[in-house]
Design brief:
By secondary structure, this protein is an all-alpha fold. The protein has four helices and no strands.
Length: 111
């Protein structure tokens, strides 16, 4: 399998990774907000909001609106993970740092 290294492909991949990075940052931000007690518990409305954002991406043509929906989906996912992160932080705070480093290493390996 030969990977195309044309400028168009590189530009596209750069945009994809940039969008994934921003969505991950929104998820991390939401998790942090929940862990600090600034967001209420994520229940069914947050799940519905996340699914709606992810589904709506498919139906809009505007690139900027699709990016905002992706970032909104990332935010709801981070919000949903808040209770899990708070639980593990209470048990072993260093486990959060290890998970972040492992995620960064895995993400960097794909680039």
């Amino acid at each position: 399998c030969i990977i195309s290294r044309s400028p168009a492909v590189r530009r596209h991949l750069r945009q994809v990774y940039a969008n994934l990075t921003v969505a991950a940052l929104f998820a991390a931000w939401a998790t942090q907000l929940y862990a600090r007690g600034w967001l209420p518990r994520a229940d069914l409305p947050v799940l519905i909001l996340g699914i709606a954002a992810l589904t709506a991406i498919r139906f809009f043509i505007s690139r900027s609106l699709r990016q905002l929906l992706l970032y909104g989906f990332g935010f709801t996912q981070g919000w949903s993970l808040g209770p899990l992160v708070r639980h593990y932080a209470a048990i072993n705070p260093s486990s959060i740092n290890q998970a972040v480093l492992a995620s960064v290493a895995l993400f960097a390996a794909f680039t």
